[in-house]
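Consider this today:
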Amino acid sequence: MLENAIAQFSSHWLLYLSMPLTSGLVGYVTNVIAIKMMFHPLDFWGIKPPFLGWQGIIPRKAGKMAAIACDTLVPHLVSEKEVFERLDPDQVAAEIEQPILDMVEHLTREILSEYEPTLWESLPNAIRNMIIKRVQEDAPNVVKELMDQMKDNISDVFDLKDMVITTLIRDRELINKVFQEAGREEFIFIGRSGFYFGFLFGLLQMVGWMFYQADWQLPLFGLLVGYATNWVALRMIFQPQQPRKFGPFVVQGLFFKRQREISRDYGKLIADEIVTPINVIEAVLKGPYADQMFNMIARAVTRSIDEQAGVARRFVAWTVGSDSYVQMKHAAVERIVQQAPDLARSVNDYAREAMDIKNVLAGRLEVLPPEQFEGMLRPAFQEDEWMLIAVGAALGFCVGVGQVMIFTAVMAADKLNLGSFLPALGLV
């Protein structure tokens, strides 16, 4: 049997050597395809969802994936209170001083001209400017008052988890980026390991074919390669969580070996893309507690307007009717809320530096227990993992069927004494 196997190899050595190379290629391609299928396409591509077509697993389950990503951040790593405690009300007021002065002047002129055009136009310029100046002088106090109230009642006006989930669901490319950033090196390893493990399986396949040839053998090996290379790679990424020593070797899951590097890059991504000052302000103004924030702004702004209106009475006969006066105050609050995101851009650089989300998050992720740290990436693989492995196995099976057809054709040609033509075809 051994002599016959050696003779078979000698006659068709190129064909036999193609087995481990083909198997390695199958392992690489199936693993890369599996990774691509996790993230792409962003929108459903096909005939009829969810079966006749495909959408990336993470974009398709964006809500669930966003909640998983958020559970890593809140409440274990960053809290609502901590986000705001780092902001100094005096510094915030100083940062937005000029934009808010410009806004106050514009709003004062606009609202008085809209609601009391006759009265406003009849006032001398000096009185108009005096009224505007008085309102401007009180504006920083309003900002500081609001900041203090927000700090004291942060749970009533800001939901960090809702902000993170809303931001990620709104931008499915971003939620892809979150998981891709966390597992950047691991995804590269999965592709490469597919070739290495596939090559090893191919060597076994080659030896087996030398001693026993059956039509089912190559498709079965192809199926096993497509399945096993993905399965083995995932186990090497996440197991073991803690370093284990085997003789002179220390073994640990690749993801946990890179915990410090991942923590640094992940913290930067979260700070730059998700927990940003602009997103925080927008969440406060448009989130689930927007009504409470609107009421808080309304109290502060109307208090300031009432005080300045009292000062103005010394200079003009204040003839604004009570209904019109209430409407003016309400309009002022609404327009301030509308322009708040633009004002927030002026404080963006200071707030980003003061909150220091990047370093805070990185430092805490570095010391996160392995079972919690794993939650940053593992769910991306666990969700419909069986489907990805099944696709790999199916592709491997198809390649195996192709190998059987080629091998059968070569053997048949050899039996028909067509071997002289085979070198030209590169098959022997």
User: Anything to note?
Assistant: DSSP finds 25 helices and four strands in the chain. The mean pLDDT is 78.
